[in-house]
Specification:
With about 325 residues, the chain is of the alpha+beta class. It has eleven helices and ten strands. The protein is about 45% helix and about 15% strand. The strands form two sheets. Strands 1-2-9-4-7-10 form a six-stranded mixed beta sheet, covered by helices on one side. The chain has a four-stranded antiparallel beta sheet with strand order 3-8-5-6, with no helix packed on it.
């Protein structure tokens, strides 16, 4: 499955394409250049996620961690973990993503697999994400397992579900062995910071088209302005206004793709004070002007549609090619 955008609800939870209850697993081919702003915005989901970097390098951020992951490497993202991805300088980023309900590994409720291997991983708050490197033998084997499970799912040969579950079970076992170095006393502050960030990001997403002050953003989490700045810096390594501008630009990019409204109309509707300022911010974040983006997107979309038709695939109208 090729994914080119995220569908988020009001709580920043990704609304994943429906997976079969009998096999709660999704394999996705992701070209980050096709996302608005060429980034995967802050979001979370109940599924755990394994990522393999096929091309380029990715900067993966969670509440308190940042990992730069290069081609041939990968990562694990824990359940319900707020995370963000952006390309590092270099080649266009292509990733192989696998999302699954941890129950696929755990099997029966209260099984030995759930109690001994799955639950400790899910409940380890220090394990926001784990970067798998080629230099470590155990991590290199984990990467091999992740790659093989994706390839099995992609081919969909008879019985591929057995291979996917087998390879990911082995990857999970290796992951559980790596957790010893991560075990630290649980810190309430980390959990509290995560909840505050979610509330403030949600407020920004709901009111991005208004004149927002630091005071209003901080009030969304019932904290001071100083604590708001500290919370964004410590958890996301950025500022609330940077998040606001990036979200406004992503909304504007979506409007440029989907509507025929003028650049000025889009600028004002997304909370910018004028077209000139909007153009400068858009170019800084997207690497081109709004008009250039609209033209490039329409040309690329037409090319992609022609390729899909030649390959016998039909767009479903939501940005996803099945």
């Amino acid at each position: 499955m090729i994914i080119t955008s995220l569908l988020l609800d009001d709580n920043l939870e990704e609304q994943l394409p429906k997976a079969a209850e009998a096999f709660p697993y999704l394999a996705c081919y992701v070209e980050m250049d096709r996302y608005p702003g060429k980034v995967i915005p802050w979001h979370w989901h109940s599924y755990v996620e394994f990522i393999y970097i096929l091309q380029g390098s990715v900067r993966l951020s969670t509440n308190s961690q940042c990992h730069v992951i290069s081609a041939g490497e990968g990562a694990f993202i824990n359940s319900n973990m707020l995370h963000y991805q952006e390309p590092a300088p270099g080649l266009a980023v292509i990733t192989l993503n696998q999302l699954l309900d941890a129950g696929l590994i755990a099997g029966a409720y209260k099984s030995i697999y759930e109690q001994k291997y799955v639950r400790p991983v899910l409940e380890c708050r220090e394990l926001e994400a784990l970067h798998f490197c080629l230099s470590d033998p155990m991590q290199r084997e984990t990467l091999d397992r992740i790659r093989r499970s994706y390839e099995a799912a992609d081919r969909e040969m008879p019985g591929y579900e057995f291979m996917v579950r087998s390879e990911l079970s082995q990857a999970w076992f290796l992951l559980s062995q790596m957790m010893d170095a991560l075990q630290k006393p649980y810190r309430l502050a980390g959990s509290q910071g995560e909840e505050r960030i979610k509330k403030m990001l949600l407020f920004i997403h709901e009111h991005y088209d208004e004149r927002l002050s630091l005071e209003r953003i901080a009030a969304a989490a019932s904290i001071s302005e100083r604590e708001c700045l500290r919370c964004f810096s410590q958890n996301l390594n950025t500022t609330p206004f940077t998040c606001l501008l990036e979200y406004r630009v992503r909304k504007a990019a979506a409007d440029l793709q989907k509507t025929d409204r003028t650049v000025t109309e889009i600028a004002y509707s997304c909370g910018f004070s004028g077209a000139s300022y909007f153009g400068r911010i858009f170019r800084r974040i997207m690497g081109c002007t709004p008009s250039e983006y609209r033209k490039l997107f329409h040309e690329k979309h037409l090319d992609d549609c022609l390729k899909d038709i030649r390959a016998g695939r039909q767009p479903d109208g939501s940005g996803t090619i099945l």
